[in-house]
Amino acid sequence: AKESIDKNHLYYQEKMRNRLETNKKIKEILREALENDGFKLVYQPQVNLRTGRAEYFEALLRLKNYNISPGKFIPVAESSGLINEIGRWVTEETIKELAELNQESINPIKISINFSVKQLHDAGYIDFLEELLKEYDLNPGLLEIEITESILIKAEDKAIEFLNKISDLGVKLALDDFGNGYSSLKYLSFINFDKIKVDRHLGKMFLDNDQKETMASLINLFHSMGLPVVAEGVEELVNYNLLKNLKCDFIQGYLFSRPVGRDKLTKILNHNFIK
Ligand code: C2E
Ligand code: CA
Ligand code: CA
Ligand code: CA
User: Where is each EAL domain found (predicted)?
Assistant: First the structure.
């Protein structure tokens, strides 16, 4: 028995060491990307089910030279403190794109970005954001910031103040991943949200298991609070049809489009997805 305990111990030690090494490597990659323009954004449309148009795009971060998903590198960015600088890069890049794109295009284009709980510690962020909006002369309502509920659970008062300052600038706020983890409606009265994004797994669970009524109630609940609903990660036509009947406002998912590069945005903007 002793021997097998030791083996287990070694195995976990080895596993832990590998993970630490991988994280260290990812951290170096992130640092290098910050220095050498190694990040890019891809954009996934959120299709308005009434108009068939991609009214919003979610900006998703990628490394130009590495095939490492944000699911892997964002946690490393968060634990290493690089997330603040990365978050600022995402913000500036998006505002720059928004300013350019809205000169080129007739239909207004809106972009949402993701914001990590760790960025609440970036004390200068709100001033940074305000300056950028001025510098690029951008209508702040074209930018939306997506936050998850973990932000509100971990740093309640501070988070509420921070987010309401963002909202005061005229920037929109979306509650991301609703239903993934601790869902609470409590925050909806403290924070001036503009939109709810229902987590892929929750939506799929309701729709696949013949719990349409539950999904309908959820959508109606948000509507009664004046909040439009985005269903995330919709891959199947049958679920699109259900969601349309339930008066869901937006769909974001592979069914309509994967995230695309900047060059495809204007084309998608003029495309009708449901005609
Ligand atoms: P998220 O904010 O929930 O973003 C949606 C994720 O779902 C994206 O993954 C997107 O590509 C994927 N997705 C969209 N439609 C479908 C679908 O129909 N089926 C499936 N299976 N997946 C779909 P991605 O780009 O790998 O990003 C993963 C997560 O990484 C994001 O989840 C977000 O939490 C985080 N992330 C991405 N970019 C940023 C960023 O710039 N800053 C921060 N803080 N986090 C980011
Ligand atoms: Ca998101
Ligand atoms: Ca999400
Ligand atoms: Ca608002």
Answer: 23-273
> Model pTM?
0.94
Using alpha carbons, list the distances in angstroms from residue 118 to 50, 68, 83, 87, 246. 36, 21, 7, 10, 35
d(Cα 193, Cα 173) in Å, to the nearest integer?
Answer: 5
252 CA → ligand 3 middle, Å: 9
ipTM over 0.95: yes
Q: Which two tokens stand for residue 195?
A: 């939109």
Q: Which ligand is nearest to the CA of 166?
A: 4
Place of tokens 């403190």: 81
How far, in Å, from the CA of 136 to the mean position of ligand 3? 28
Q: How far is the CA of 254 from the centre of ligand 1 (A)?
A: 12
* Residues β-bridged to residue 61: 41
Closest atom of ligand 1 relative to the 177 alpha carbon: 3
H-helix or E-strand containing 62? strand 54-63
Q: Is 179 near ligand 1, meaning CB less than 6 Å away?
A: no
Which ligand is nearest to the Cα of residue 141, counting in written order?
A: 4
> What are the per-10-residue average pLDDT scores of the chain (275 residues)?
72 86 95 98 97 96 98 96 98 97 84 95 96 97 93 78 96 93 78 94 82 90 96 94 95 97 91 91
Nearest to 108 by CA among 69, 138, 153, 73: 138
Q: Which residues contact 14 (CB under 8 A, 6 or more apart)?
A: none
